[in-house]
Design a protein that fits this description.
Helices cover about 45% and strands about 0% of the residues. With about 70 residues, it is mostly helical. The radius of gyration is 39 Å and the shape is rod-shaped.
């Protein structure tokens, strides 16, 4: 009877020792792409505004209008 219990215990120990993977497999990382912007970023507005301010600052005001 002791031999049967010892055999059963050895089988159960071996069964749990071989369960599962031996090496860790990391899950695959999903890359999330940012959707492309439509119409540009608007970064061209900043230099345009700076140029307009400089142009207005350096022009002479002699009372005549351009239009």
């Amino acid at each position: 009877m002791k031999r049967i219990l010892a055999t059963f215990a050895a089988i159960m120990a071996a069964k749990s020792a071989f369960a599962g993977a031996v090496t860790f497999v990391a899950p695959e990382v999903v890359a999330i792409e940012e959707p492309a912007r439509m119409g540009g970023s608007g970064a061209w507005l900043i230099p345009l505004i700076i140029a307009a301010v400089i142009l207005l600052a350096v022009t002479k005001k002699n009372g005549t209008t351009l239009l």
